[in-house]
Amino acid sequence: xxxxxxxxxxxxxxxxxxxxxxxxxxxxxxxxxxxxxxxxxxxxxxxxxxxx
Length: 52
Description:
This protein is 48% helix and 0% strand. It has helices at 11-27, 40-47. The chain starts with 10 loop residues before the first helix and ends in a 5-residue tail after the last helix.
């Protein structure tokens, strides 16, 4: 992520971020304070293709 911090166009990063957030929201209906700061991108990459 730091490699791209000075990029002028962040559309691809925004799309990925929104995709991860959408996936998290679809998987977890209740949000707990312990969930803050988790590596959601890594969890998304590991599990988003697996069906629920």
